[in-house]
Amino acid sequence: MTTRSVRLALLSAVLIAIMLLPQAWPASSATAPLKPGLPIRSAQEVAVQWKKLMNPSGNAENPYLTSPSVSPPYAPGSLQPRYIRDGVDAVNFYRFVSGLPYDLTATTDLNAQAQYGAVLLAAEDDFSHEPAKPWDMPQAFYKRGLESASSSNLYAYYGGEDHIAALSIDAYMEDSDTSNLAEVGHRRWILNPPLKRIGLGQAASEEGWIYSVMQVVDESRAKVPDFNYVAYPANGAFPLEIFGPDYAWSVSLNEEKFQAPEGKKVTVTVVRQRDRKTWTLNSKYGKVAEKGNYFTVEPSGYGSGAAIIFRPGGILKYEDGDRYQVTIQGLRSQTGTARTLSYAVDFVRAIK
Prior knowledge:
By secondary structure, this protein is α+β, with helices and mostly antiparallel strands. It contains 6 helices and 16 strands. It has a 5-stranded mixed sheet with strand order 1-5-7-6-4. A 5-stranded mixed sheet has the order 9-16-15-11-12. A 4-stranded antiparallel sheet has the order 8-10-14-13, with no helix packed on it. Strand 6 (197-204) and strand 7 (209-215) form a beta hairpin. Helix 1 (43-53) packs antiparallel against helix 2, helix 2 (81-97) packs parallel to helix 5 (164-174) and helix 3 crosses helix 4 (139-149). It is globular.
């Protein structure tokens, strides 16, 4: 007997831009290429954190502390703390390798909110940020579920007994299917520097679909890093285990420091150092497809601000030890100064 699995993800319908006041860089750095301005991880650090954070141990066969009910009488239920912890660990690993603070926590109130959203989705297998109200669901329950679904990352899975909390985080970070490539919004919310508090919920429908909800629209971090941009894959050592040849690359700009980018003026150059293979990506590569060269500038307020999204085509796989040099031109600071971004990605194996 074969097991069928389907992974789907939707972008959050609530776009909350983080509005910050502009400030200039010091005059001495006015023309120098900009690095991300975040810590650079070493291969050894990546391996250590992989062992610590990417080995889920929660009970995937029975993840519930109290089981949700997706038909009358409706009940949100709750997840086992260890199972939730596995999902939080995965989020923190992705933030760690991106140079961001990796101390996120799942709070009781946000976990509860996410459960209402998951039950609402599962009640009628309505995978949407605006699911319809089941006729027999109390209005108060529906309201809480709708508030959750409309402000979360959503994931749906069918088949098997996999660790859905961990899988959902991987799917949000991949974010490169044709319905998400042009925005990578799930990824941008997870890599939002001010993020500190999240919530995870899960419920299964009577038809066997499992719905996972991640409350991720948050900016409660007291001390936000003074970053220039968030690159994914990131500057420095980056694990091969979480990045495939058809995945989107993305650079989320700190809108405190950059003017809104104009897509037709931005160019991305990617150079593979071992053979000097070069990709020059710009607006002529704006057609969404499963593979091949791709480029867009996405201005919406997912996470920290506008993003440059690109993909060098024709790569069969990324190799251990490969270095890719990325240069982005055509940006301007808030004061109008032309800015060039430059960083290098060193692909490594996290599992030695």
